[in-house]
Amino acid sequence: MSNILNIGKSALNAAQIGIATTGHNIANASTPGYTRQVIVQSASQAQNFGYGFVGQGTDITAINRVYNDTLAKQLLNTTSTSSASSAYYTSINEINSLLSDSNAGLSPVMTKFFSAVSAAAANPTDVATRQTVLSSANSLINRFSAVNERLNDIRKSINTQVEASVNTINSYATQISQLNLVIDKAMSTTGNPPNDLMDQRDLLMSKLSEQVKTTVVKQSNGNYDVFIGNGMPLVVGDDTYPIYAQASSTAPDRIEIAYGDRSAPKIIDSATLAGGTLGGILTFRNETLDTVQNQIGQLAVTLATQFNDMQQNGYDLNGTAGVALFNVPQPVATSSANNVDKTKQASASFVPGQSQQITSSDYTLKYTGGQYNIIRNSDKTVTSTATLPITVDGIEFNVNTSTPAEGDEYMIRPTQGAAGKITLAFDDVEKLALAERVDANGNVIAFKGAGDNGNGLRLAKLQDTANVRMLGSNGNRSYAQAFALMVSAVGTKTNEMMVTSKADASALEGATTAMQAESGVNIDEEAANLLRYQQAYQAAGKMMQIASQLFDVLLQLGQ
Amino acid sequence: MRISTNTIYQNGTSRLMDLQNDLSKLNEQISSGKRVRSPADDPVAAARILELTNAQNMNSIYTSTRNVAKTSLETYETNMTSITNVILDAQSSLVSAGNGSYNDQQRANIASELQGRLDSLIGLVNTKDAQGNYMYSGHQTGTVPFVLNTVTGDIDFQGDTEKRALQVDVQRQMPVTYSGTELFQANGNDLFGTLQDIISLLKTPITDATTQANFSNGLADTMTKVQGVLDQVLNVRADLGSKLNELDTLDVTGSDMELQYTASISKLQDLDYTEALSDLAKRSTILEAAQKSYVQTSQLSLFQFI
User: How far is B285 from chain A (nearest CA, A)?
Assistant: First the structure.
């Protein structure tokens, strides 16, 4: 008799646990990272009574979460891919709108400037027309400077984002390592999986994957070891190996990622850190921001230098040889912070008359094996020499005093930021050199008079001369064409990133749906389970009631 | 297939958001009238628009330069019309000076008449244009071109023979100034010197056969030279006419191109309203349907029946 009551008790108990688990599922239906839990129920060991095995009721052997490793891995991958492309798209879209803004675009100011030059060439003695040239030159350099400033803002915001991302990654890494410890303890002491803690750890993994692409290696004890980049461990068991946000060795205003020894972490190649928001913005900076800012600098430097050169081919209104209109900044050279010999410095300067050679690339000057190697960073073209100075792409490279130490390197940025540093060299309208000083054969001739507009015509002609070098394309382009090409390249990339980020987002949605299909809570299903366990509970109760009535029958026998 | 309640809500909202995005983009296009709002909308078209706009601007630069050229040439034309008239007047004075019945006094009268003509000629050739530049002094625009040399008594040219050219079209630089010395003092036909000579001859009384011969020869010589200068001036006026014609032709081409550029830019950039508005209607309907179905499906729950 007590046997029957026990069976009833086990059934009641199982139904209660079933209702509790269902309730837990309903309660957490919208909890981020929650995976539904199910009870594992089995028949209790039966008892042999000689005539056969009599069942002894039911046991709850475990409460498991419904979790599929493959789907989870897929979700992590699509998460970091989608975060990367969406971060890239958001950033490049800023440049895209900057270039399309008619108030900020460079096309109108270049046109206005050259219209003014053409008008001055038509009326060389008219002071008011000359004044228009100077004021439109002023708005030209202001616009270049404003665009450059906007790009610098984007650059600064990327630094902030990188720092924030690094902090987030390290914080998630610490939390994952702590959960590793707690989960390991719970498993080894109870032998049962702590489902909700495991959900929390997987949620952290998913958040970490939003920041950077990760690889998870599940250990036999259930610990997660997490790697980023080229197999750099971030979490191993309950240890973490943090990454650091650190200024670049050659450009102090550029925050890079460093890793390794806590006292002296080394900067890692940002190209290896793909995926996630961090990977997305780093790729954007390398691929688009640097290129665009360099190209705008190249356009500004080329235009200003060529106008200056032409000014010097003319006489001004008073018959004095023309002087430069624009002050053009020289290339910026920085020594690597890792250089052995810190006393040496590199220098670089634009070679007069070679402005058509200037590219939009940055250069690395590296001293190895007795050779100075000038590396054009955009396409890795190397020019080697045993002695300096040497002229490459219209730039003279040099290193002060004697030989640097083996392996020392210097970064030369000819055009980055140059668009923001151009100023006007004079404000005297008479100094515009509209009269011819150098004739068609290159000979210096005498001043012909104030009415001479020979050089003015050449200054105006600069606007449709192919003067800007485009790497990777044969033939130079005019200023307007060079700008149009740049706009088109940014537009194409923005468009590509828009499509990619949409595709990645729908891949993420697909992976989420697949994961949710397996692990997510369905309220209707839980409602059905609730009914099932409710009925089971009622049935078990009824059974116990019958057992009690049977007992009453026995007791009545004695009366 | 099993589907989680979260997915039902998430899919529903993300579809609605996509549709709203599309609608908002369409709205932007419709309110701005532009199909290409940023380079990303159509990178190829965006670059092409920039190039076309630049070409259009260059075209309008040439148009305004042509206007400067026209003003300059027309100023010369007006000035040379007056010069032609004065030379014609001088010629008729010279013809009457040849009248053998005139006495010394009458010739002296003609001399002073011619002196007046010479003075107005010098006034005309020393005219400044609208910018305050001397028209006939070449590049020496601030220098009076013809000045009486007080020592020699000659009228000296102080300018040069340079001509200012203007970029009136991509490939065409058109000279739009004329040098005084080439017009009035070329090929031995010095208009001013010749007139000065004949004036002094007219003032010289005819007393004998020698002075008579001198006068006749001098007059004949003057007639030839003045005619030479007149021919020169008329040639230049013909040149002016053909240049003005050329500018008109270039203007026609320029305004054709302007129309073409505007049309091409509009084709690349402007929105097709019919298409956009029908698209808007279609998408609004879809969004409305999606909203209705979302509300209805999200209301379905087994709990309503328990």
Answer: 23
Predicted complex: ipTM over 0.90: no
Calpha distance A410→A377 (Å, rounded): 12
Alpha helices by DSSP H, A194-239: 195-211
Reduced 3-state DSSP string for A339-367: CCCCCCCEEEEECCCCHHHCCCCCEEEEE
pLDDT for residue A474 is more than 80:
no
The predicted-structure confidence for A271-281, as pLDDT tens digits, reads as follows 888 899 999 99
| Nearest Cα to Cα of residue A83 among A227, A257, A280, A284 | A280
- pLDDT range class, residue A440, cuts 50, 70, 90: confident
CB-based contact B50 A487, cutoff 8 Å: yes
CA A394 to chain centre: 32
Which burial class, exposed, middle or buried, applies to A129 when counting CB atoms under 10 A from its CB (0-12, 13-18, 19+)? buried
Type of residue numbered A481:
Q
CA dihedral B118, B123, B124, B128 (to 10 degrees): 160
Do A228 and A234 form a contact (C-beta atoms < 8 A)?
yes
The confidence score (pLDDT) of residue A269 equals 87
- Chain B residue whose CA is closest to A497: B40
Give the Cβ contact number of residue A348 at 10 Å. Answer: 22
Enumerate residues 159 to 178 of chain B having a beta carbon within 8 A of any beta carbon in chain A.
159-160, 162, 164-167, 170, 173, 177
Q: How many CA atoms lie within 13 A of A381 on its CB side?
A: 10
What is the distance in angstroms between the Cα of A323 and the nearest Cα belonging to chain B? 21
Taking the alpha carbons of B81, B82, B86, B89 in that order, is the dihedral positive or negative?
Answer: positive
Position A113: which residue type?
Answer: F
Residue B174 has pLDDT above 70, yes or no: yes
Contact A125 B139 (CB under 8 A): no
The two most distant CA atoms of chain B are separated, in Å, by 148
The amino acid occupying position A154 is: I
CB contact, 8 Å: B1 with chain A? yes
How high is the pLDDT of residue A103? Answer: 63
Residues 6+ apart with CB under 8 A from A396: A348, A349, A350, A351, A389, A390
Structure tokens at B155: 């009228």
Sequence-distant (≥ 6) Cβ neighbours of residue A424 within 8 angstroms: A134, A137, A138, A141, A325, A326, A327
Q: Which residues contact A363 (CB under 8 A, 6 or more apart)?
A: A348, A374, A375, A376, A377, A392, A393, A395, A397, A411, A412, A413, A414
Torsion of CA B100, B101, B105, B110, to 10 degrees: -60
Q: Are A3 and A56 in contact (CB under 8 A)?
A: yes
Looking at the predicted structure, is the pLDDT value of residue A229 above 90? no
- Write down the pLDDT at residue A104: 62
3-class SS string, A444-469 = ECCCCCCCCCHHHHHHHHHHHCCCEC
- Say yes or no for a CB contact (<8 Å) between B142 and A125: yes
Task: Indicate the residue of A93, A487, A523 with minimum beta-carbon distance to B46.
Answer: A487
Report residue B38's pLDDT band, with 50, 70 and 90 as the boundaries.
confident
Give residue B306's identity as a one-letter amino acid code. Answer: I
Separation in Å, CA A352 to CA A169, A306, A309:
49, 9, 8
- pLDDT attached to residue B302: 87
